[in-house]
Design brief:
Order of helices and strands: HEEEEEEHEEEEEEHE
Number of strands: 13
Structural class: alpha+beta
Radius of gyration: 21 Å
Number of domains: 2
Strand content: 35-45%
Largest sheet: 4 strands, antiparallel
Number of helices: 3
CATH topology of the largest domain: Outer Surface Protein A, domain 3
CATH superfamily of the largest domain: Ribosomal protein L6
Shape: elongated
CATH class of the largest domain: Alpha Beta
Oligomer: single chain
Length: 177
């Protein structure tokens, strides 16, 4: 049995969970999220805990048990505390600025790169750091990855957009004999 799926998920006092068939909705001070559970996974509320159960021992159902529990736990954390990914701009002349919902970056191209922030995501630029915030963990990670993809860190000079906790392995350049 899945250890993650078997573990009860505590519901914070400021959040509420509603179950309607296979649809699980979570509401908190930061917003509201909902998912459709996979076939064979049930969710029930037991006081201030959410318990995930599976209908059978089929391999597919067992595989989705822990995933569904993780998704509900991530939704609870998102609507109460939220998620954040932080990126750094490394390079001479690399900078970013926010103009409304548009992130404009100068990252070594002949033109500025413009990224439109999707709904539910807040982007903040401070010095050479870009903070991506939101309540949906998957969406925050996806937006941060899309921003990073404009200029991933390169191994020779270390220039580019990188996550704050990311280590870039540096390579030695050419040697002149």
């Amino acid at each position: 049995m899945s250890r993650i799926g078997r573990r009860p998920i505590p519901v914070p006092a400021e959040a509420t969970v509603t179950v309607d068939g296979r649809r699980v909705a979570v509401k908190g001070p930061r917003g509201e999220l909902a998912i459709e559970l996979p076939e064979g996974i049930q969710c029930r509320i037991d006081g201030d805990r959410v318990i995930m159960e599976r209908a059978s021992e089929i391999k597919r159902t067992r595989a989705f048990h822990g995933m569904a529990a993780s998704l509900v736990a991530n939704m609870l954390e998102g609507v109460t505390r939220g998620y954040q990914r932080e990126l750094e701009l490394h390079g001479v002349g690399f900078r970013g600025s926010m103009e409304g919902r548009k992130l404009t970056m100068t990252v070594g191209y002949s033109h500025p790169v413009v990224f439109n922030a999707p709904d539910g995501i807040e982007i903040e630029v401070k010095d050479s750091k870009i903070m991506v915030r939101g309540i949906d963990k998957q969406q925050v990670g996806n937006v941060a990855a899309r921003i990073r993809a404009y200029y991933p860190p390169e191994p020779y000079q270390g220039k580019g957009l990188r996550y704050v906790d990311e280590r870039v392995r540096r390579k030695a350049g050419k040697t002149v004999a």
